[in-house]
Amino acid sequence: MKKLGILIGILLLSLATFAMDATDFEKNLTVHKLKNGLTFLIYERHEAPVVSFHTYVNAGSVNERVGITGISHMLEHMAFKGTTTVGAKDLKKEKELMDKIDAKYLKLYDLKDHNGDKAEIANLQKEIKTLQEQAEAAANIGEFDQVISRNGSPDLNAFTTSDATQYHYSLPSNKVELFCFLESERFYHPVFRQFYKERNVVAEERRMRTESNPTGKLIEQFQLMSFTYHPYHVPTIGAMSDIQHYTRAKVANYFKKYYNPRTMTIAIVGDVNPKTLIPMLDEYFGRIPAGDVPDPIVTVEPKQTVQRRLILHENSQPIYLIGWHRPAETSKDNAVFDAISGIIGSGRSSRLYKKLVKEKKVAAYVGSFNGYPGTKYPNLFMVFAVPSANHSNVDVEEVINDEVEKLKTTPVTDEELQKVKTQAKAELVYAMDNNMGIAQMLANYYVKRGDWKVLFNDVDAIENVTAADIQRVAKEYLQKTNSNVGELLPKEQKSEKE
Amino acid sequence: MKRISIFLVALMLTAVSFAQVKDYHKIKYPTPKAPQIVKPFQFKLKNGLTILLLEDHELPIVSGRILFHTGSVADPAGKTGLAALVGDTMRTAGNTLMGGDQMDDYLESMAASVESFAGDTSAGVSFRCLKENADKVMGLFQATIETPVFAEKQVNVSKEQVKSAIMRRNDNPQGIAGREFSRRVYGLHSPLSAMEELATVKAITIQDLKTFHGKWYVPDNAVLAVWGDLNRKEMEKKLTELFRDWKPATVKLPTLDIHSEKPGVYFVHRDGVTQSNVIIGHLGQLRNNPDFPAMAIFSRLLGGGFESRLMKTVRRDMGLSYSPHGGIGTNWDYPGAFAIRINTKLGSTAKVIEVAKGIVSDIQKNGVTDEELNLSRDAYINSFVFQFDSLDKIIRRALTYKFYDYPENFTETLFNGLKKVTRDDIKRVANKYVHPDKALIMVVGDESKFDKPLSEFGPVTTVDVTIPKPEIKEAAVTATQATLKEGSDILRKAIDKLDPKHKLDKVKIWQIKAKTLVQQGEQKMELNTTTSIRYPDSIASEMTTPMGAVHMIVTPEKAVMVMGPNSRPLPSAQADSLKKRITTSLPMLAKLARGEKNVANLTKTGDFQGQTAYFVLVPLGEKKDTYIISKKDFSILGTTGKEVDQTGSVITTSSTWKDFHEYDGILFPTSMKQTAGKVKADITVESVIINPENGDQLFN
Fold it and tell me: What does pTM read for this prediction?
């Protein structure tokens, strides 16, 4: 027992004295911009002979419109299908066959939409199947991902969000040129092989994530409700009917408009030497013609004047979501929202967890986050709660509302503010431990915030947040009339609001 | 100057000498660099604790992790969930150094973490912090491991979270499929299949937590690893001091009982979904199997990546599923499961089962191609460097090998093995370790939309995933011949007072119309209800709410709910609660009261709302309610009882009966106040119709 006394003596609150430094970081960073507008962020990290690549395309579901919802995500799938050199065998023949398939599909869509003759539909489907087989025989299906896999990549993948479409993989560091070849080809002259089959895969993805998953359904409905005019309204997976009407031409048009060196940024992190890497980047990626920057989105979500609520009855226990409209990530109040989220909804010491989970035991879990469904445009600050077994959404809603009110009326404590500041510094240190994580952060900050240095400036911005800032922002944004509520309830349980 | 200019020219030459290729096969790669393979430093304390250390000075972070051979397989009977609760509350419910809540504040204020966790055969504690806080955090790490106090306050919070998880375990169909498949692969009687239930979690006491911790969390049952920005020698000294007083003891996990359930189809019905979750498989292997390299390549080719047969066929060529995958599953200390997992639209459920089976049997019969083998082998071998790309990965793996007693060069041996795998090996392991004819097929979905009946694939067992409610424990009441006679006489008099002409005996159907005001907390709802009962076994209830009418019908043949044009099966919990209303209705009470047996027990005579009353315990169906009967005039004043609610909690129910009116010679209480837990209902009866004409139609 002797050592315990001594330890208690040193268990005093302490502040982080260490922080990542932008100047140290900069020593290993090279920003290289090609003439066509494509930007590379190269960060040297020679811990191991490996390198990670992260391609950020500044287009996501926010750039979609009715009729082609989900097309950014569909295009992400198609970006694994190869190019005119990778995956090609008899390209001319393949292209002819693909054109024929497109024509048949247009007809098929038309017949299906207009209650067409069943025999005709069946016949058409049979013809399509034959053409597809021929097209596949004229190609080397799967070559693109096979070559990356074969060369040892453990993490080839991509993801689409409202703001962007992002592609990534890692390779042993002697294979950097393979990346240059494949990634430049991929976005220079892609071939959308097996288009209509991949469309079915995307439909299955929608069935899995959204239609057959109660929480997925809730989130989709919540997004649709929360944004009325701004295209953050569009769920990334897209409407089933739109998916079932995709054509290769629609995706090609979208690609042409939104994918070019000026919408793309590539971060390369790991065991690389910029001196040898840059000539390679120039050679391979310099081939891609400069395109136009797409027109900006001018629509602004109208100020919300009444609370909106949706109640979804499913085979599920209750879930509660609430989201308040807030400004974009570039706003001066961004750091204040980060501080608010840290204080009320991050970790076991946060206000909401203490109240809802520990004290009142009305929730099994509660948390908060900023940036739903994206961060580029004005978005939502979200709180979500999982009510405990004997409680429902009513019980958690009351406490959440109380805690939000308290932010307006009473200044937060110095300890709480200090905690979020320390965490911001430490989290940046923790985030520097792997190539892929660094690559993703660099690309995101560079595109969304205009400068990778903001990664460090954000920590300073939080450092400057005051208790008065939090009160001001809470009063301005965290109003009932500015909020959206989503409730998931068991089929047999009524909400008080019904 | 000269030297510099030559250098510049050389540099320019390298720059211009680069030229792109038109075909990636022609790329000339520099020689790959070998990964730096470092070995952690290992030592052992006198009390038996094995410790691994590794310096990593890239970032100012220190991390640690200790593992123990214990977990849910060590849960005692009737207390399933104990290991998991220990794994949770070791950290959250505090230790002799600091309370749990205080620790939350303290650790988060310095962005550090100490976390405890438990799985099925392993459990442990981990920490991570900035170097400058390492001493303080490691003090708490040690106290969490050695001297947790399991404070009741935080244990109760964890129990609530566990209860919530139990209630939510059927929310996601994918989760249901995985869980129920695994339980059948290991056998329903295996400790690997035991599930925590509301009752088993409730049964766990603070003493249980302490006893479990004391038994299993001992130094010679553990391996500790600490790594990061530290000095190896200093850390060795520090840890030796920190864990010096920890007392050793010998423990060993029991051998696991694993007996798979019989092959066939296991089905869980789920409505409101557009997709089925399908899993096909059986018991798998241990990772120390000498065939592990061949199994790894077989699994990769069957369903482990974009180049696998499942991905190529089911996803890429047929477009039937987003992420079909599968392989021979392995674990460190007990067999994994061979499994193929596919989500697909309801209408292709049978199709994917057929396709998956076809893919397996094709590999068994024809093996794989040279191209497939080479691709998969190259992919593995070229990814070797990623096994060693961070010191964090290296020490975590070393900890795992040490903990499960695997050779420390297990990774290197595996990769050497992978290089030697042949096509014959693949075919051999496919036949030796995979048996589609003995597979269990788990399906979760809506069978009304399947392309073929599941019985095509073998005998179908329907799996009931209803979450069991805890049993109601009745307080022991003495019942003697005398109290039973007294109670039954009193009940008979009370019934005769309500029904002097024995009209209740002749009720075939009766219908009650009422207005009900339901109140829970501050929320209120007014309903118009019509409840019709056809004796002995049918009930129809119609509710008009502000949102529209809901019709619920329960007969021996069916249990449905109708809302507008939509009809769907009534959840069993609601059907049960409706059935209870048949057994507790007045005609049933009269039948029991006027029967030959004396079953109503007088439990006490006492005060009720200012008057003396008899308390008579009456068993009606599965429910036991106490009827409170006035001593003065034998009128029924109300009832009290206990019930299990929809979340599995035992709640108290009560009712008071007032304003008796006569309907067809029967006195009926027209004003009833009921409570069930936190829900209150004021019922005003508007009419009672006995044996209405065409009454049977109400139950169609």
Answer: 0.82
